Amino acid sequence: MQDVQITPVLTPVALAEFVDFPWKVYGRASQPASFPQASGATLLSRWVPPIRTQERELLDSTGAHPFWKEARGRLFLARRGGETVGRIAAVVDEKYNRFAGESCGAWGFFECLHDREAAEALFQAAADWLRAEGMTYLRGPLNPSTNYTCGLLVRGFTEEPAVMMPWNPPYYAEFAEGWGMRKEQDLFAYTIKRESFVRPDWLEKQLEHLRRRGEFTCRTSSRATLEADIRIMLDIYQASWARNWGFVPMSAAEAAHHVKDLKSVLDPGYFVLFFHKNDAEQEEPAGGMLALPDMTPLLRRLDGRIGLSALWHYCMSRKAMRRGLRVVLFGLREEFRMAGLPFLLVDFLLTQAGANPDFQWLEGSWLLEDNAPICDLMEDFGGRITKRYRIYRKELED
Asked: Which of 34, 49, 189, 220 is buried deepest, with most CB atoms within 10 A?
């Protein structure tokens, strides 16, 4: 067998190869690949193709994507006998390191054929580059930070991934752990199905008590207020998540970029803000939640490209997209966490979704495994863990 060669991505042609490589691993949406399992059975790919132009923009560290204003990175390809067999990105996020007071290097955008030698060579290339950049440990997968897609799927391979959540074959975890990475944090995906959404008596009484008190008011967003509401939600998010593991401050430019990408599919009715009346009789933002419709049916039909047929694919996918929701932003100001606001937020969203006859499920993802209050909240509303994602860590020795 020919040796593995690792080469950095330095040209537009190599970048295009990096972007296109996942289709070699997972196949096309119409012809998904299959993967071996330890039991000897095969596992059909449930990977959801990203939009190539968006992926290329995010991966180009020399381009205009706002993430790279305070970050730097290097992409690598693994080749064996002239054939590309894997890829990885190494990233230094200065915004995170400055906020956390750390020297963390990230690895991400990892994809590989069933080739352990190639995978370990890719991990080593990322580690060597990050060590040369002065980093003391590496963490991943982050694509490229916790404000984007992250985590390696380690449980729930037969479940469909929600929008902006990863899917990967089981052997990726074997490769990471075999190279010496250890678990740093697990991320949970909780699913609440329509048929399991039955409020227990104690919760119904609590909700009724909260409504009678009238301490909070709420409103959904709209096309006219969306930009301002996103700014409010970003402030809530930054304040409520700042002490959590892995938190990275999101710049206003990054938030605006996310909104631009999602604006065409975001349903303002699933974006709710709650307000609390202060001593001066003024309403102040207290919490908020944003859920996205399940765009995976559309993304599979597009298969990475937005062309002249995109509108037709959207119309054909619209009903399927209305069946599921993924909560992507959830935030509560600390002073209101024990005032019943979490119950009101989740209940409002589920009630809103339940009014849609096509609605079947809601996924809360991702949730930190050590965030017991929020995990308990999902279980109070009938949620159960359906997928587990893992973030790995390894020290970079001199």
From this structure: 189
